[in-house]
Amino acid sequence: MQDNPRKFMATDPFGRKWTVNLEWLQNAISIRHADAVDVKWELTADDGTEMERVVALPHPYLLKVAKALGRELTDSWCIRLAGEHVRQMVDTWEDAEKTIVTPSLEQLEAGAKKLESVLAVAR
């Protein structure tokens, strides 16, 4: 797990190392009329390749996962969830061709559980 959820490194299956930087977090209703929280990332590979990805976190899923974990729905938690999803995307190259990616409920639950276990160890 990354120490800084706003800037971290990930390695793709081809061995390229990517620097992942948070650009912004915004309620998607204001930009796409969607019931989601959009988190935009700028990715730069060690070979100079650049790409942008937006992780669209569906609000109903966020509420369900937060309730199950007894967590508050906060911007910092959304950033960490979206960052975990981007890291997983880079690691596996799944959905690499998509600019806007919407994780499934199962993906969010798995990412949240991973975050919870890492944060529990850090305490």
Short description, anyone?
This protein has helices at residues 59-69, 75-92, 105-122; strands at residues 7-11, 17-27, 36-45, 50-58, 100-101.
Describe this structure in words.
The chain has one domain (7-122). The radius of gyration is 14 Å and the shape is globular. Helix 1 packs across helix 3 and helix 2 (75-92) packs across helix 3. The model has no long low-confidence stretch (mean pLDDT 92). With 123 residues, it is an alpha+beta fold. The protein has three helices and five strands. The chain has a five-stranded mixed sheet.
Would you spell out the secondary-structure blueprint of this structure?
Blueprint (H helix, E strand, L loop, with lengths): L6 E5 L5 E11 L8 E10 L4 E9 H11 L5 H18 L7 E2 L3 H18 L1
Parallel strand pairs: 4-5
Antiparallel strand pairs: 1-2, 2-3, 3-4
Helix pairs in contact: 1-3, 2-3
Features:
alpha+beta; single chain; 123 residues; five-stranded mixed β-sheet
pLDDT < 50 runs, ≥5 residues:
none
The number of strands is: 5
Question: How many domains would you count in the coordinates?
Answer: 1
Query: Main beta sheet, described?
Result: 5 strands, mixed
Q: Counting H and I runs of at least 4 residues, what is the number of helices?
A: 3
